[in-house]
Every structure is written in C-alpha cells, then in structure tokens.
Write a structure and sequence with these properties.
- This protein is α/β, with parallel strands linked by helices.
- 41% of the residues lie in helices and 16% in strands.
- The chain contains 19 helices and 16 strands.
- The protein is elongated and about 90 Å long.
- The two termini are 52 Å apart.
- 40% of the residues are buried.
- About 3% of the residues have low confidence.
C-alpha cells in the first residue's frame, strides 16, 4: 500500500492575506483530526469550544438539510461574519441498508454506542455475511455573504472485520482508535483496520481526511482570490479570538528549537507535541523538501535520489531558505523545526535566530527499527539491512554524523511516550525535571576546540587550500599549537567521508580533501566558540 505524505500549500504560507477558518464541533478527537490535516497544508484551524453540540442533529432532515440547519443555528448564535465549517459522519452497511436509505446512516454515533461487535457480526451473518461498508464524511462551509453553504464529501469503501480489534488507541492521533467504527473497518485494498494504521498509512484511506482535503483545495482557491489587488479581502487578524481553543498558556516568543536525529528517533513526535502542548509552530523539513520537489518537478521514486538532486542543484540550505521564506513571521513567535539533514541548514537558521537551540534525539537502532516496523512509515523498507542503508543515506548529507557536536541538549528516547513527553517538556521549558531521565542540557560543545581533533584536522585542510597527507596534517596542527598525530588524523577523517574526501591513488600516500560540508562544520564550530 502506498503511503501519502502531505506537503504544505505555498499560498497559505506566502500570501499577505490569509483566511481564518473555524471548525464548530464538540468532538475533540474530530477537531484534532481536522487540525492535523489543515496544519500540514499550512492552514491554522481555530476551534469553537462547546460543552454541548453547537447545533441540534435532526437526522430525519437528511444530510444536506441537517448541515444547512446547523450552519443557520451557529450563524444566529455567533454571527454570520466568520468563515466556519461543520462536519457530519455517516455509515452505510450494505447488507443492512436499502437502495434509498443508509443504515445506520447519520445516526452512526448513537448506533455504535449501543451496538456490540457480536451483535453486528450476527446481523451481518444473518443477512448473507455481506460485510461491505462505506464510511462517509460531509462538510458544510459557511462563507459570509452566501445564502447557502458550500458542501464537500469524502468516503471510503471497505468491509467490516471478522473479529474484534486488539490494538491500542494511538495517543497522538485519537481518531485512530479501536473505540470507534474505525476499529471495525478495513478499507478496500488494505490488510489493516483504519484505526490501527499509522497517520501516514491512514492519510490516503481516511474518509474524513479525503473530505478535508477537498475543503483545503477550495480554501486554497479562495486564498488566491483574496490576494488579488483590490478592496475585497480581510487581513489576517493579529490577535486571537477569545473563542479560539488555546492548548497552552505558555508564551513561546523566545523558544526556538531545531530537532535532529536518525529515522524513527522521535523528531516528528517532538515537534507535534511541542506544537500541541506549548503552542510552538512546528515545521517538518521533509514536508518542505517535498513542496520544493513538487514545484521543481522532481519526482524520482527513490526519495534519497530526489533529495540529493534537489540539494545539489539548489544548494544544501535550500530547505532552510524555503522555511524562512514561508514561515518568517510565525517563526518569530517560537518554533520547532525537525529533520534537517545538512550542516548548512543549521548554520542558516542560527544566523537568523541566534538563540536557537539544537536538540539531538537519540534511540538505539533496535528501538528505531521496531518503531519503523510498527508504524510502517517508510513502506519500501522491510529489513534491518534496508533500514541501515537508510541511515547511511541520511549520513551522506553531512549533518547526522556530527550532529551531537552542535547539540545544546540531548534526549535518549527509549521509554514510553509519556516519559518522552516529560523530556520534551524539560527541553522546551528549560526547567529540569528529576523524573525525566535521559535528558542532558548544556552539553555543547561536546568537545572543546582544543580537544576536537576533527575540527583541528579540517581547519588544517581548509587553510592549506589543497589535499594533505596525514603527516602534513600532523605538521600543520603542530604549527597551530595542538598536534593531531598522523594516525589519529586518519581515524577521525575516515569516519566522516561527507566532510572530507579520502583520495587514494596507486603509488601515492593517502590524502584528504575538505568538502563544503566540512567547511560548514568549521564555520559553525567557530560560531559556537567565537574565540577558537
């Protein structure tokens, strides 16, 4: 099964005038679902918080009439001047429905609450065991000035599973759960229930995600129109509505973080949690890279090759430059950027935000591979050897081999999710938590420049302007006052082929030549240690 990985839509991030969109629902899991989908497109979704349903649900009206009445009720209570939408989910069990009426239809929430799996299984078997089902999502969007709402639809066809679910609820994405029909429903072409899929797996299968993406495409069109020269637009508000759902009271103005680490170490979890709990803008570098590749027309089926092509043709800091272009104002209010691959990206963000901290997230290969197997985030990787090759590909961009050298904090992420959340809280807040074991702060630099043999070797190579033998490196470092013996020079440089190229020609001694990532390493080390 192909996994979808959404990319931001540039209009939502670059245009001066932006839409403020509200979702009216009392279902927090449904709101969080919508927020994740819209956030990954570049839209910020606001929430009308209500203890009760914000509108009456009279299922006898039918789907469109129900949603239209909901729009009218909400407009009358909060005003018709805001852009908002409502959503309703319905279900059709093929063998229990008629050609004209879905069962249980719009009453799926109430039906699920009173119906056990065994009761449904029995009813299906009594009806010939036709287990086909279609889950539907319908959205009505209220646009100020229009009499009738605009409707959007998404649906997923599949079958009811033969057994009860045995998986646990996803604590990060609570709509992926065994406690709703998602736990009983297997989409066509899949071997998993919708509720037990990872977010990436579910993206192309989820009925509500499909509907919301239709909504996003329309909002993208409206944003383009909003930014046409003329008087017919509303500027993005500079203050938040008191009705907006606030997930954090923390003022994140001074909080700037870059999270680096290997595949499945926990970078995305860090960013999403910091966004939801602490209100920091989360930007995933891989999503921005995908946006750049789409715009350039780079569609190599091998992501590593596509990434290399993009960075080689447009510069190793192209993703960081794009992030600054798209999010420049939002970053000033506090951010977490995850997944950088090059030293130049770290260098560029640090130039613009001198107070930014680097958090290095570490987990063992065994733990990371187990997470990969459980989440199936990278569908092309099935074996440990393939996973290791993925690590080697990531190393080749230059940063990960030496990331710990630039880390202001280090997290060992081997425990439970709650344990990891405590560690993230400690890093974001800067307040030590005795219960958050495996967190090291103020760890930079790992080595002083006097101790850092790699730094001294690279400085010698850079100042020479030509490749050097290890004996020549020893001579030059001795002249600089901190000798690196020739055998040690060979060891440290051999470990970082991304920073220095090893030249072996028949009949000559081994030489090393500094590469651009090596020069970036030297610059960044000097920036962190100005007196070196």
């Amino acid at each position: 099964m192909q996994h979808s990985r959404p990319t931001p839509r540039e209009l939502f991030l670059t245009k001066e005038k932006q839409l403020t969109v509200f979702f009216y629902t009392s279902n927090l899991a449904k709101f969080l679902h919508a927020r994740v989908v819209l956030d990954r497109s570049g839209l910020v979704l606001q929430h009308f918080r209500s203890k009760d349903d914000p509108y009456a649900e009279d299922y006898s009206l039918g789907k469109k009439a129900l949603l239209e009445r909901a729009i009218q009720e909400i407009s009358s209570s909060v005003g018709a001047g805001s852009l908002f939408f409502v959503e309703d989910t319905s279900l059709r069990m093929e063998s229990l429905s008629t050609p004209d009426e879905d069962f249980p239809g719009l009453a799926v929430k109430e039906w699920f609450a009173r119906t056990s799996f065994d009761e449904l299984d029995t009813a299906l078997k009594q009806s010939g065991n036709d287990r086909r089902a279609t889950v539907k999502s319908d959205v009505a969007l209220h646009i100020p000035g229009l009499v009738h709402p605009v409707f959007f639809h998404g649906s997923t066809e599949g079958v009811v599973a033969n057994t009860l679910p045995t998986f646990e609820e996803n604590p990060r994405y609570p709509w992926l759960t065994p406690k709703s029909f998602n736990g009983w429903f297997i989409p066509n072409g899949c071997d998993k229930r919708l509720g037990e899929m990872s977010l990436e797996e579910s993206w192309g299968q989820d009925f509500r995600t499909r509907c919301l993406e239709e909504l996003i495409s329309r909002l993208e069109e409206y944003t383009a129109l909003l930014n046409i020269s003329g008087p017919y637009y509303v500027r993005k508000a500079s203050t938040e509505s008191p009705q907006q759902l606030r997930l954090s009271a923390l003022d994140p103005v001074s909080t700037a973080l870059m999270v680096v680490g290997h595949t499945c170490a926990g970078k995305t979890t860090f960013g999403e949690y910091a966004n939801h709990k602490h209100g920091l803008r989360f930007v995933e570098a891989s999503s921005i890279l995908g946006l750049i590749e789409d715009k350039l027309g780079i569609h190599n089926p091998q992501p590593f090759i596509a990434a290399k092509e993009t960075l080689e043709s447009h510069g190793p800091d192209v993703v960081a430059r794009k992030i600054l272009e798209l999010y420049r104002q939002e970053l000033e209010r506090g951010f977490v950027i995850s997944g950088f691959r090059t030293i130049e990206e770290i260098e560029l963000i640090r130039d613009h935000f001198p107070n930014v901290r680097v958090a290095f997230v570490e987990a063992s290969e065994k733990t990371r591979f187990q997470r990969h197997i459980e989440r199936e985030r990278i569908p092309a990787i099935h074996t440990l050897e393939e996973f290791r090759r993925r690590d080697q590909e990531q190393w080749s961009f230059g940063l990960l081999r030496v990331a710990e050298e630039f880390a202001d904090a280090k997290i060992v992420n081997e425990g439970s999710l709650d344990d990891y959340y405590r560690k993230i809280d400690a890093i974001v807040s800067g307040i030590e938590d005795p219960s958050a074991h495996g967190v090291s702060t103020n760890v930079h630099p790992k080595h002083t420049v006097d101790e850092n043999q790699l730094y001294r070797c690279l400085v010698a190579l850079e100042s020479s302007g030509r490749p050097l033998t290890c004996d020549e490196i020893e001579d030059r470092t001795r002249e600089a006052g901190n000798t690196v013996r020739h055998n040690n020079a060979n060891k440290v440089l051999k470990r970082v082929p991304e920073l220095a190229r090893r030249l072996e020609l028949e009949g000559t001694r081994v030489r090393y030549e500094i590469l651009n990532p090596g020069r970036a390493y030297v610059r960044l080390m000097k920036a962190y240690t100005p007196n070196c």
